[in-house]
Amino acid sequence: MKRNMLFVALVLFIAALVIAPVAAQDDPDLLIWADRTRTAALTDIAARFAEDYFINVEVQEIGMGDIRANLGIVGPTGEGPDIIIAAHDWIGELVLNGSVRPLDLGDAAEQFTPASLSLFTYNGELYGVPYAVENVALFRNTDLVPEAPQTWAEVAEVTEELVTSGASQYGYIIQTTDFYHFFPIVSAFGGYIFGRDAEGNYDPNDVGVDSEGTIAAGAWLEGMADAGYIPDAVDYDVLHTLFESGDAAMIMTGPWALPRIRQSGIPYAISDIPAGDAGPGQPMIGGQGFMISAYSENTLMAESFLLDYMATEESMQAMYDVDPRPPAFIPLLESLADTDLQAFQNAGLVGVPQPSIPQMSSVWGAAANAQQFIIQGDLSSEEAFTTAGEQIRTLIAGGEIEIVAASVGDTPPEDGPQAVSIPGTVDSAAGCAGDWDPACENVQLGYDAASDVWIGTFVLPAGDYEYKAALDNAWDENYGANAESGGGNIALSLAEETPVTFIYDNKTHWVMDNVNFLLVTVPGDFQDELGCEGDWQPNCMRSMLQDADGDGVYTFTTTAIPAGDYQGKVALNLSWDLNYGQEGARDGANFTWNVPADNTEMTFSFDSATNIMTIEAGG
Question: Does domain 407-513 have CATH number 2.60.40.10?
Answer without folding.
Answer: yes
